[in-house]
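Exercise 7b. Backbone tokens:
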């Protein structure tokens, strides 16, 4: 056998060993994957968030430094924390509530279990007088996995009970309607059945009435005659635009003032 043939065989063996080693590593440490939902857009979105789901499910790092830098409320200050998903995250509170001590702790894409994970850091430790929660639409859509309305309701109850222990008055906002008036809206609309939104809103209203909490009804003010989000209030059927937030702001302010007035 020639020296050239020896080198070729040696190189082949080295490559084979590296390949087998890589296969063994892949078997021992498989890459995480997320089951298909049957919705291409949602599958792509969930796949893009694997690192979040495995490394920092509640996304505590998002506001950790801001929370640490925030001073305690001043004497007589009625601090309000807004917690929610992208609808809250995208809301520029300072533009709609100028001069108010209102703090935005919304995070794009979150569901209620994620909000519970960060509830102490982003709510309790900030010592607000009032908490405004707008959530649930991503739970219904299955962003962090299939979720029953009963599971969402249980997460709301946990938030309310934690807030009560720390003397924080709670405002639970209704889920917003959605629409499918544009091509971009059709998939997100299909993921959020109207009957589930209505059922959860009915439960929220009833729970607030029975437990002395404020129910903030965005849905009625933003739904059209078909029960869908008014076309002029959203550019893609899910998130409010500036016109949508202009409707939401005075409703939120009214609920906040009622919550403050009802505190002992």
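Sequence design result:
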């Amino acid at each position: 056998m020639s020296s050239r043939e020896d080198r070729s065989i040696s190189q082949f063996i080295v490559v084979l060993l590296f390949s087998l080693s890589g296969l063994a590593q892949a078997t021992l440490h498989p890459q995480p994957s997320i089951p298909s939902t049957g919705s291409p857009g949602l599958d792509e979105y969930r796949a893009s968030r694997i690192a979040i789901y495995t490394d920092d499910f509640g996304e505590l790092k998002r506001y950790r430094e801001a929370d640490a830098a925030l001073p305690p409320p001043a004497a007589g200050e009625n601090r309000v924390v807004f917690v929610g998903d992208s609808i809250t995250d995208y809301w520029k509170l300072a533009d709609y509530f100028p001069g108010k001590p209102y703090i935005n702790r919304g995070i794009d894409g979150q569901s209620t279990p994620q909000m519970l994970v960060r509830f102490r850091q982003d709510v309790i430790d900030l010592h607000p007088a009032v908490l405004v929660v707008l959530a649930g639409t991503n739970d219904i859509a299955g962003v962090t996995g299939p979720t029953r309305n009963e599971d969402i309701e249980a997460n709301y109850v946990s938030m309310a009970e934690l807030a009560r222990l720390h003397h924080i008055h709670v405002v639970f906002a209704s889920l917003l309607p959605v629409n499918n008036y544009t091509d971009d809206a059709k998939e997100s609309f299909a993921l959020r059945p109207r009957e589930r939104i209505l059922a959860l809103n009915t439960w929220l209203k009833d729970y607030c009435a029975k437990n002395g909490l404020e129910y903030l009804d965005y849905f009625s003010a933003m739904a059209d005659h078909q029960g869908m989000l008014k076309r002029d209030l959203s550019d893609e059927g899910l998130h409010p635009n500036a016109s949508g937030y202009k409707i939401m702001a005075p409703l939120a302010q009214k609920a906040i003032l009622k919550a403050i007035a009802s505190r002992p």
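Instructor comment: Strands lie at 80-84, 102-106, 130-134, 169-173, 214-216. The radius of gyration is 24 Å.
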